[in-house]
Amino acid sequence: MTAQQRIYSRIAGTGSALPKRVVTNDELAQRVDTSDEWITARTGIRQRYVAGEGETTVSLARDAAIQAMDAAGVGPGDIDMIVLGTTTPNLIFPSSACLLQAELGIVGCPAFDVNAACSGFIYAMTVADKFIRTGDAKTVLVVGSETLTRMIDWSDRGTCVLFGDGAGAAVLRADADTGILSTHLHADGSKKELLWNPVGVSEGFKPEEENAGVRVLMTGNDVFKHAVKALDSVVEETLEANGLDRHDIDWLIPHQANLRIIEATAKRLDMPMDRVVVTVDQHGNTSSGSVPLALDFAVRSGKVQRGQLLLLEAFGGGFTWGSVLLRY
Ligand code: UT7
Q1: pLDDT tens, residue by residue, 194-251
Q2: Domain 3-176's class?
Q3: How far apart are CA 211 and CA 215, in angstroms?
Q4: How far apart are alpha carbons 303 and 137 in whole angstroms?
Q5: 34 C-alpha vs ligand 1 centroid, how far in Å?
Q6: 202 CA distance to ligand 1 centroid (A)?
Q7: Could you confirm whether domain 181-327 is CATH 3.40.47.10?
Q8: pLDDT the model gives residue 3
Q9: Is the CB of 157 under 6 A from ligand 1?
Q10: According to CATH, where is 3.40.47.10 located in the chain?
Q11: Is 220 in the pocket of ligand 1 (CB under 6 A)?
Q12: Range with the lowest mean pLDDT among 29-43, 93-107, 147-161, 201-215?
């Protein structure tokens, strides 16, 4: 290999996992003052999956990872790094990536979590890509997995109708020909209170309160505006960095928070909705699980074909946002 030859991170296989229990909009309308009409019209969400007993961020990650490894034709001995995007780890430590490593019978390779809220998978893929491109890793397991419903306030109609649980995974392998073309990450910590969970270990923890005060808080319409603007700008940035025209993208695989946000990005790309992968109707917002769930759905349903150009993007708490452009 000459010094000029580039190494790409190619998606060798994908997988996903969802909890067993489906919760419909009508079911939520029995708990809070909402309706199927409102939720569908404002968000596009029709149902979501909610983790039950024994279903955790790590168990969903494991099921998704096993599928992705099978699809890639790799075994535990081939994986030389695990990067897991999550904001709902099983434990504070060890990281969920370490717990996942043990579940998969993988020994010795580095394993760590990335907390970038809903952008977790985009951040995790970016980190994995850097390791592969520098030659430090050859086969990386990248996962986005969440059980966000565990910290939802089920009496807050502004948030409880939006979120669901789930996981997606991809095996990235070093490849001489094609794969990830560019990644673009951003954050703005000054807007933290528009979308956050105000409880951690070093701050906000109130052991005397039930659930220690853990809950997701969001100023939805402000987040909406920031999301549309940030995603517009990162999409432009990605096209420009690669000298591409917006019509060159074959598939948009967006974060699945709200159909109206997805449609706004598609409009920006002048992309018909049949070139956009939409799973928000089925899954709700699964945070860092959402992009890899949509990716796996697109692959398994035969929508996405080898050689096509995919644009993955996400926006979430932090704020964080970013994109990955890849030739599948
Ligand atoms: O993944 C991380 C990023 N997260 C997001 O991107 C989420 C971004 N935000 C959104 O998706 C939307 O802002 C929401 C779906 C959360 C809300 O939709 P909206 O069109 O922005 O509604 P709104 O917050 O401006 O509220 C409009 C009305 C309010 O009532 P009033 O004040 O007009 O009487 C809300 O109280 O809708 C009310 N409302 C509801 N009504 C029925 C809020 N939630 C509900 C509900 N059912 N579940």
Answers
A1: 999 999 888 888 777 776 778 899 999 999 999 999 999 999 999 999 999 999 999 9
A2: alpha beta
A3: 9
A4: 29
A5: 11
A6: 31
A7: yes
A8: 55
A9: yes
A10: 3-176, 181-327
A11: yes
A12: 201-215
